[in-house]
Amino acid sequence: MAAVCLLGILLAAATLPGVSCAKTVTATIGDEVRLSGAAAGSDTVYLFLTGPNLAPNGVRLDNIRSAVVTGNPGSFTRVTVMGTTWSYRWNTRTGGGTPDAGTYTVYAVLLPNGRQDLAGTDYETISVVLAAGGIETVTTGSILVTSIPAGARVLLDGNEQGTTPVTIRALDPGTYTLVLLADNFTPIEETVQVETGRTTNVTRTLKRPTPVSTALTTPEQPASPSPTQSAGAGWVVAGGLLGAWIFGRR
Length: 250
Fold this sequence. Notes:
CATH architecture of the largest domain: Sandwich
Number of domains: 2
Shape: globular
CATH topology of the largest domain: Immunoglobulin-like
Number of strands: 17
Largest sheet: 5 strands, mixed
Helix content: under 10%
Number of helices: 0
């Protein structure tokens, strides 16, 4: 287990007993990384992760398929501050799938703000380099989502995945519900099948809603009677003879 700490939020520096404070740690995918730090004046720290092929605003540490949403505390990995310190054990082979080898950044923030909304917010970061642990059997698949035009929001089973074009990786085989959302376009929702070791390509053209017609239909006017035909009169043909008949009113 790798043990690291983040510099204290609102404190000069903080370490837990027996733990050296580093700003970069290297671990093998599947290892557990112990994160710790200090947060004076707060009872909760919000953690999220950024890195290769992850949602640009960050994802939960315990589910890399679940993107964080600024202002939504439940979308973050939340850690309770005990006194002035906090600690979290991060299993790098998360419940949402296995991350790719590469360099990741863990954020510890005092407010539920993603990476794109950190201006004016107290936060600290630490880099984690994840290395592949030898030969591994591929057990997951991925989805590459593109749209015309680009920039549509992508939700997978209700979890934000960023905007198109985006590749959603480390997905367990199975069926997922994919939703594309964009202003002034009709939402698209469909079922996508993920297979082990394969990337499912989904490309969709967004369409604008069909305008609703507000034109009024003028009711058809009844035909006027023929000027040569008076009410109560008519003609009848019987037996090859043309005769007139008239009926009156009593």
